[in-house]
Amino acid sequence: MPDIRTQTLRDYFFTLLTAETQANERTLDSLATVPAIQQSSESYQRALGVIAHVMIAKRVWMLRVRGEAWKVAD
């Protein structure tokens, strides 16, 4: 990660957003490797719930940044 003292605020948030997006992609890739027989387990279902929550929260945050309202149908 670049030195935050030399970044603009916009660049800093873009760096954070990029890192967060990459982490989410790695998480989804990892979840995709779980064998079908284990996908009904409590721990797998909990992991799906957590990543879904994280991704929905990101979407709501991005909509708020753009001045848009979040709709439940989204």
Key features?
74 residues; 0% strand; flat
Percentage of residues in DSSP E strands: under 5%
Count the E strands. 0
Which class best fits the helix and strand makeup?
A: mainly alpha
Distance N terminus to C terminus?
A: 32 Å
Principal-axes shape call: flat
Question: How helical, in percent, are the residues?
Answer: 55-70%
The overall average pLDDT, rounded, is: 89
Which stretches are low in confidence, meaning pLDDT under 50 for 5 or more residues running?
Answer: none
Radius of gyration (Å): 16 Å
Count of helical regions: 2
Main beta sheet strand tally, sense and closure = none
Assembly form of the protein: single chain
- What pattern of helices and strands is seen along the backbone? HH
Short description:
Helices cover 65% and strands 0% of the residues. It has 74 residues and is mainly α.
Q: Could you characterize the architecture of this molecule?
A:
The chain is mainly alpha-helical and 74 residues long. 65% of the residues lie in helices and 0% in strands. It is built from two helices and no strands. Helix 1 packs antiparallel against helix 2. The protein is flat. It starts with 8 loop residues before the first helix and ends in a 9-residue tail after the last helix. The relative contact order is 0.08. The model has no long low-confidence stretch (mean pLDDT 89).
Topology (SSEs and partners):
Blueprint (H helix, E strand, L loop, with lengths): L8 H24 L9 H24 L9
Helix pairs in contact: 1-2
